[in-house]
């Protein structure tokens, strides 16, 4: 069972991109997903092939080594991958939104010239260190510090849940740190810290509920020194700049969640048609039919939501509220569809060899990462003027 993307008014180029990556996901990604999940290993050969396809460079100008596409095209790619493997999809999403995009948005020409080409080729990855043990949704509670000592920043603190921070091709992480005070408030800046910097430790990876093949680590900084020129963007604008990056990232996460929701629907429809219960296919039961219909409605609504937000973003129009709505709608759809697909699969749905079991474990983080559902509700409430 496959949803006809042509019904979503995609251009010919967009439709070709989506179909190409869906084919790649089915042929290359899906066959290794179970083993990668079981061994908790990011398949670097798959990442390399994604780089060769130009996926990491989709939304960047050609003069930087990108593909000259837009954010909508990136999200089409993320959605297509997430149908079969959320870990691979989040590797692409974080590699672009959190790794390369801050350098592209706020980096100096020198930083862009040095750092962007390998990131856009997919031969290098980077992480973004925002979250801390005591600063998640309240990122303004950042405690990591960076002080200038001559022509160097000296960084101390810790970050957690940092994606793509410890892969074999990770080159640096960008971290938010308190660099002083402004009007009695913390001055938060962002600083590029290359891997291998003395005093910078990538701690062992997490034992996670899901996204097992995604690379995620806590980070520790103990008098880690980097050149003053490693400041990314204007001093004191680090937190504000990252909020802009986060708004874009919510659209991408919504696309990822939509792909996950569709993957669950496809698997459930196929299983219901094949599974015989009391001499009849499971799909002949009206309760199952209604469940599948609701799952399809969720996928449709989620896709329309992220399409709208991405189109606004690419048109240069305000999209903050629409991104929050898309992320909220799609993450709910992914979690709900994963739960109902697992129920349709019965006992088999509890076995990790089946993709619905992995989607069930993976999808919960979609309601938490890059802004919890509660944060999205707050964004929407503020837009309504009631918060």
TrEMBL record:
Keywords: FAD, Flavoprotein, Oxidoreductase. Residues 236-384 form the Acyl-CoA dehydrogenase/oxidase C-terminal domain. SUPFAM superfamilies: Acyl-CoA dehydrogenase C-terminal domain-like, Acyl-CoA dehydrogenase NM domain-like. The keyword Nucleus does not apply. Residues 11-122 form the Acyl-CoA dehydrogenase/oxidase N-terminal domain. Pfam families: Acyl-CoA_dh_1 (PF00441), Acyl-CoA_dh_M (PF02770), Acyl-CoA_dh_N (PF02771). Gene3D superfamilies: Acyl-CoA dehydrogenase/oxidase, N-terminal domain, Butyryl-CoA Dehydrogenase, subunit A, domain 2, Butyryl-CoA Dehydrogenase, subunit A, domain 3. Its cofactor is FAD. Residues 128-223 form the Acyl-CoA oxidase/dehydrogenase middle domain. GO terms for molecular function: acyl-CoA dehydrogenase activity; flavin adenine dinucleotide binding. InterPro entries: Acyl-CoA_DH_CS, Acyl-CoA_Oxase/DH_mid-dom, Acyl-CoA_Oxase/DH_mid-dom_sf, AcylCo_DH-like_C, AcylCo_DH/oxidase_C, AcylCoA_DH/ox_N, AcylCoA_DH/ox_N_sf, AcylCoA_DH/oxidase_NM_dom_sf. The keyword Flavoprotein applies. Belongs to the acyl-CoA dehydrogenase family. This is Acyl-CoA dehydrogenase. The lineage of its organism: Bacteria, Bacillati, Actinomycetota, Actinomycetes, Micrococcales.
């Amino acid at each position: 069972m496959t949803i006809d993307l042509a019904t979503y008014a995609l251009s010919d180029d967009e439709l070709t991109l989506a179909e190409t990556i869906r084919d790649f996901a089915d042929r290359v990604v899906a066959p290794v997903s179970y083993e990668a999940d079981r061994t908790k290993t990011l398949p670097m050969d798959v990442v390399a092939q994604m780089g060769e396809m130009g996926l990491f460079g989709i939304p960047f100008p050609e003069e930087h080594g990108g593909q000259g596409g837009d954010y909508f095209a990136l999200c089409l790619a993320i959605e297509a991958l997430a149908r079969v493997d959320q870990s691979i999809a989040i590797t692409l999403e974080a590699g672009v939104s959190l790794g390369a995009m801050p350098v592209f948005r706020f980096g100096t020409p020198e930083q862009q010239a040095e750092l962007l080409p390998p990131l856009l080729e997919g031969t290098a990855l980077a992480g973004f260190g925002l979250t801390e043990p005591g600063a998640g949704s309240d990122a303004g509670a950042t405690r990591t510090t960076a002080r200038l000592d001559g022509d160097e920043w000296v960084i101390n603190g810790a970050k957690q849940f940092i994606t793509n921070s410890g892969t074999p091709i990770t080159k640096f992480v960008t971290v938010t740190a308190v660099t002083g005070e402004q009007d009695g408030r913390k001055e938060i800046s962002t600083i590029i810290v290359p891997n291998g910097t003395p005093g910078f430790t990538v701690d062992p990876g997490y034992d996670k509920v899901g996204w097992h093949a995604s690379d995620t680590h806590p980070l520790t900084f103990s008098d880690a020194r980097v050149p003053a020129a490693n400041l990314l963007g204007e001093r004191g604008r680090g937190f504000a700049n990252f909020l802009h990056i986060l708004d874009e990232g919510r659209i991408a996460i919504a696309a990822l969640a939509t792909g996950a929701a569709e993957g669950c629907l496809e698997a459930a429809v196929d299983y219901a048609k094949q599974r015989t219960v009391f001499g009849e296919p499971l799909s002949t039961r009206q309760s199952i039919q209604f469940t599948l219909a609701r799952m399809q409605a969720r996928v449709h609504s989620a896709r329309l939501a992220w399409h709208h937000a991405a189109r606004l973003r690419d048109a240069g129009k305000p999209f903050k509220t629409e991104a929050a709505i898309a992320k909220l709608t799609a993450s709910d759809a992914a979690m709900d569809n994963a739960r109902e697909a697992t129920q349709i699969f019965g006992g088999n749905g509890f076995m990790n060899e089946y993709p619905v079991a992995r989607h069930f474990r993976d999808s919960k983080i979609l309601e938490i990462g890059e802004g919890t559902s509660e944060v999205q509700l707050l964004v929407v409430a503020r837009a309504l003027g009631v918060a």
